[in-house]
Amino acid sequence: MYAIIETGGKQLCVSEGKTFRVDRLAADTGSEISIDKVLMIGGSSFSVGAPYVSGAKVTAEVVDHFRGEKIIVFKKRRRKDSRRKQGHRQDYTTIRVKSIVA
To answer: Which domain covers residue 42, as residue numbers?
Structure first.
């Protein structure tokens, strides 16, 4: 069984027992979270929400919080002596899906 969920403004296809990286969630490491924004559930039975499947939820465990790779944002306007250099590191949370309830 699999489900398509929405978290952090992004859609993600999840299945039970798998580990996924999502944008930072406000939850402690080792705690259990419930995601109610389920767009679709697939497997033996198939249901599509409009926009969300009613009564469906995904239960997951927070495994870890970490920061991603550093990226450099560099903007230059030619012939204007104008440059801007900025770095960014995104915060992520690793979750492990425990169950999918339809």
So the answer is: 2-101
